[in-house]
């Protein structure tokens, strides 16, 4: 996809990778880590290469991700829509 989003494993600041690894390892996330995940997911789903009604819904919902559980639900929906951010 030419309009692909940035992938977390290639992030250069050193901030996102440990947060995603904590998420994937089922560790609790701090509010700051949740905000970092939300920002990553926002840029991911905002990529112009993703289209469709499910994508529009995901874009509308991304700013409401305020808990680990909400992130997990959102990611499951994203995967179902063909946009796997992890």
From the structure above, extract its key features:
86 residues; mainly alpha; 4 helices
How would you portray this structure in words?
- There is one protein chain.
- This protein has a domain at 29-34 and 51-86.
- Helices cover 53% and strands 0% of the residues.
- It has helices spanning 16-24, 31-45, 53-61, 68-80.
- It is mainly α and 86 residues long.
Write the layout of secondary structure elements.
Elements: H1 16-24, H2 31-45, H3 53-61, H4 68-80
Quick structural gist:
By secondary structure, the chain is mostly helical.
Quaternary structure annotation: single chain
* N- and C-termini, Cα separation: 16 Å
Coarse shape: globular
User: Which residue ranges are poorly predicted, with pLDDT under 50 across at least 5 consecutive positions?
Assistant: none
- Rg calc: 12 Å
Mean pLDDT: 92
> Structural class of the secondary structure composition?
mainly alpha
Number of helices: 4
Strand content: under 5%
Number of strands: 0
Order of helices and strands: HHHH
**Largest beta-sheet characterization:** none
